[in-house]
């Protein structure tokens, strides 16, 4: 009984890391387009548009590859700093991931 209580308290004390962030791709836009994360976090990009998109970091730090309608991809952000990204198919679609 006592052990159970200690384990429960330890679970609460664990730091929350590796959060996942969600970005929608819709209407030729990334929403949100500015994403603040911690190094080690993941971002799931989901394409809700009727055409294929990508989310491709200009510094090569992440790339979803081609996402068809309804598809999603999870990328991990491993480096600190600002990572501007765009859609490799529609270069006017832009965003920035900032990792601390
Ligand atoms: Cu696109």
From TrEMBL:
Segment forming the signal sequence: 1-18
InterPro entries reported for this sequence: Amicyanin, Cupredoxin, EfeO_Cupredoxin, ET_Amicyanin
Keyword Cell membrane: no
UniProt keyword terms in alphabetical order: Signal
Domain EfeO-type cupredoxin-like: 5-99
PANTHER family: BLL1555 PROTEIN
Protein's name according to its UniProt entry: Plastocyanin
Native source organism of the sequence: Rhizobium loti (Mesorhizobium loti)
């Amino acid at each position: 009984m006592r052990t159970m209580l200690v384990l429960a308290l330890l679970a609460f004390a664990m730091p929350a890391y590796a959060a996942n962030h969600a970005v929608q791709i819709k209407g030729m836009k990334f929403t949100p387009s500015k994403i603040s994360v911690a190094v080690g976090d993941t971002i799931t990009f989901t394409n809700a548009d009727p055409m294929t998109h990508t989310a491709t970091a200009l510094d090569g730090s992440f790339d979803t590859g081609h996402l068809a309608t309804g598809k999603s991809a999870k990328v991990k952000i491993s480096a600190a700093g600002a990572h501007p990204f765009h859609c490799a198919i529609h270069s006017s679609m832009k965003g920035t991931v900032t990792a601390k």
